[in-house]
Amino acid sequence: MSSFKFRFRDRDGAVASHESYEFSDLFAAIAEAKRVLGEMALEGLPAQSDEVLAVEVLNAGGIPVARVGLTITVDFLAA
User: How is the chain split into domains, by residue range?
Assistant: First the structure.
């Protein structure tokens, strides 16, 4: 088992979790980050183009090792 923390990024900025969570490996931690990102998206998608919802996975030393994100883009197409 390995210890990981999460940092959440939304419209209000970044918030780091102070709790450590145990996962079998990095891929299991990423799977949890995806699940959490889905919950964040249910609370509201980014309001403006290029805003990001993201969950960063940090190792036991607090170093970011992966990022799962959702970016909203608006492209205007020629009519």
Answer: 2-71
